[in-house]
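stuck on this:

***
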Amino acid sequence: MTNPLLTPSPLPFGLPPFADISETHYGEAIRAGLAEQLEEIGEIAANPEPPTFENTALAMERSGALLQRAAASFFTLVSADASDGIRSLETELSPLFAAHQDAIYMNRELFERFNALTTDGLDDESARLVQEYLKEFRESGIQLDDAGQERLRAVNAELSRLGTEYGQRVKEGMKQSALLLEDEGELAGLPADDIANAGEAARQAGHEGKFLLTLILPSNQPAMSALENRAVRRRLYEASVSRGCSGGSLDVLDLVRDLVRLRSEKAALLGFGNYAELTVDRQTAPDFEAVQSMMSRLAPAAVRNADVEAAALAEIAGHRLEAWDWAYYSAQVKKDRYSVDDQQLRPYFELDRVLADGVFFAATTLYGITFHERTDLAGYHRDVRVWEVRNEDGSELGLFLGDYYTRESKRGGAWMNSLVEQSALLGTKPVVINNLNISKPPEGEPTLLTLDELRTAFHEFGHALHGLFSNVTYPRFSGTSVPRDFVEYPSQVNEMWIMWPEVLANYARHYETGEPLPRDVVERLKDAELWGEGFGTTEYLSAALLDLAWHVLDTTDVPADPLEFEAKALASAGVAHTLIPPRYRTGYFQHIFAGDGYAAGYYSYIWSEVLDADTVEWFKENGGLNRLNGEFFRTELLARGNSRDPLESFRAFRGRDAELEPLLKRRGLE
C-alpha cells in the first residue's frame, strides 16, 4: 500500500486519512520528511544568490511540509492512542528530532543568510519573522565553537531520550497504580455511574467482579471527595502520590537527576545562569526575578487561606485531619455551609449538552461561528468526533476534533493540539483537537461531568479557539505558537462562560427531566466560589515553585535524593503543607520532565491568569457575551497568534498593561 502520509491528504482541510495509515507508515514518512527538509535547508544555505527575505525566510517557512504532516499525526497518537509499537517508535525517533533541530539551527551558512537580511521595507509580521529566527539560532547555540556545538548536540539528544522515557514510565505508572478493590461496599459514597465505571475498568483489566479506581495525572483524585471509607481514601491517596518514586522499573527519579543536570549544562553552554533563566528569556515575563517576585507575593496569602480552610475541615471531621481527608470533608463543608453537593450537580452536566448548548453555544453567541458534525470524517480512534466550524457568513473556518474519554492508550490530563496549522502563506486552514480524560460510562448510559471536568471542557476549547481563529501569514506564528506564559491566557478566559447566566441556563439541564439547574443552586455555587481557593492556590503554587527549584540548580547541585530535595524546596518556598501535596510531585510531574514544554514554565498558568482575570473585568464592563465584544477579542488577540508581541496584542485589546488586582480578588488573596 502507498504510504498516505507521503502526499497531502485528500480529505477536507487536510485531515489525515487515519483509517488508511498503519504504524509502519509513520516511521517511513517521518524519516523521509527529516531527509527532505534537510535537503531543502541545504539548498537555502547554499543558494548562490544574495540572501533575500523571499529566498531565505520564506523558503524556510515553506520547508518541511512532509515532516510537519507526518509528525503532527504521529505525536497525536503518541499522546492520545499509543500502542506498544507507537511507543517504541517514539523512543526510536525522539533523538532524531532533536538532532534534526540542531542540524538546522547550528547551520552556520544558514544563520549567516538570516543575519544578512534587512527588515527595511518589510511589513511588521515579516520583520518579526526574521527577528524570531535569529533569536532561535542564538538560543540553539549558533554562537558556540565546534566543540561546544558538538556537546550541545549530545545534550539535546540525551534530553530528548530521557524526556520520552519519563513520559512513558509515568503513563505506565498511572496504569499500574490504579487501586483494585474486591467489594462494592468499599466504594460507598461514589455515585452509581462511577461504581459502574470502576467495575467496567476492572473487567477490561482482567478482574471480573472487582472494581478498579484508575488514576488521573494530578495528586488529588476525584473519588476522594466522595469515598466514605477512610481507609480506601488513604490507599487511593498513597497510590497517587507515590507514583514514580517507589523503586522498581517505573521509578523516574534517576531520570529526573539526569534531566536536571543536563538542562543546567545546556543553560551554561548557552550563556545563562541556570535553566530557568533560559526558559524565561523565551517568555513574556520580563525576567526570572519578576516571576519569583510574583510567586513570593502570592504564596503566603495562599497558605494562610489554606490554613483557615483546614481548621474548618478539622472541625467538621471531628478527628485529626490527614491529606486523604481534605477532599472528602471539603465536599461536606460545601454541602453544610453552602448547600452545594458536587455529585448532585452532575446530572445537570451531560457531555453532549455541555458541548452543544454550552461550549459551542457560547462561541456562537460571542463569535458567530457554527458547528456542524461531520460523521463522514473519521479521527484516529472510534471515540473521536469531528465538527466542521464555519464563520457567521458560512465560510469555512476549520475542523474541530473532540476526544473526551480516557483509555489505557491515552496519557493523563487534558490538552489541545493541532493537526494542521493555519497559514495564509501555505493556504492551510486549522484542524485542532481537544483531549480530555473522562471515564466512559457503560453503553447506553449518559456521560455526566463533574464541575472540574466541566471547567476543563471550556478551558481546552479556549485553546481550540486560539488555534481556529488564527489569521497569520506564516506557520511559525500560527494559533497557540505563542510564549508558554501566554498560551494559557485565552483558554482561561473561556472558562468565564461556564457560570455566565445566559450560557448556564442553556446547558445546565437535568439529563432525564430537562429541568434547568435551580436558581438557588446557582446562587449557592456563586457563594461557594472562594471556598477551596486556599487549597487550590497552594496546591498549584507548590508545584510551580518546585518546578523553579529544580531548574535553578547548577550541575554540581543536583541532589542524590530527589524526594529530600523536593521537601526542602517546598519548605524553603513557604508552601510545604502537610495536608496539601503539590499538584504534581517530582515522580509524576509530566509537564516539566516529559519533554521541556513547561520546564521552568509551570508558573505560566498563574502568570496568564493575571491577563485572564483582567480580561474578564473588561468583558463585564463592556456588556459581556455579545458579538461586538467577541469580534474585538478575536481580531485583536486570538487571531494574532505570535505574529506580533503577545503583550502588544493584550494592550491593543485592553488599552493598557494588565493589573494584578482582579486576580488577587478572584483567588481571595487581597
Notes: The two ends are 64 Å apart (CA to CA).
